[in-house]
Amino acid sequence: MANFGDYHPVSGAGWSVYWRVSQLHGSGLEVWFADFRGRRVMWRGGQPFAIVPYHRPIAGDPKPPDYTYKDGIGPQWGGVEFTALKKGAPNMWASSAHHAAVDTEAVEVTVEPAGNFGPGSLTITAKFQCG
Predict the structure, then answer these.
(1) Would residue 96 be called left, alpha or beta, if left means φ above 0 and alpha means ψ between -120 and 50 degrees?
(2) How wide is the angle at C-alpha 108 spanned by C-alphas 18 and 30, nearest 5°?
(3) Over the stretch 33-88, which tens digit does the pLDDT of each residue have?
(4) What is the pTM of this model?
(5) 3-state secondary structure of 56
(6) Residue partners of 27: CB distance under 8 A and separation at least 6
């Protein structure tokens, strides 16, 4: 059974990649060892945070007119940590019923072959709850 932190290999459209979500809370999607047509183009990449506008700021924190926080890997910048959500979770503040139990519930991989009007593609997506 897949767990948070496991590396998952995927390939398609000339790509060979490993992905992972290292933990349920405080982690984002990571892509490792990305090879395109047999050549390494990236060792590691990820999106560890998001700049999030909060609609009802606490008075004076942060200072107007920004009202934004840096959510993601942890609360050190005033925001909240990411929480991995199941594929198909609604686009709203979700209850814990939408939390992924394992990383494969949070990530969707699609491979599209090349067609007459465009190249093939390999897409790795995940959804995370943040402030």
Answers:
(1) alpha
(2) 40
(3) 999 999 999 999 988 777 777 665 566 555 555 667 777 776 666 667 888 899 88
(4) 0.79
(5) coil
(6) 4, 21, 48, 73, 82, 84
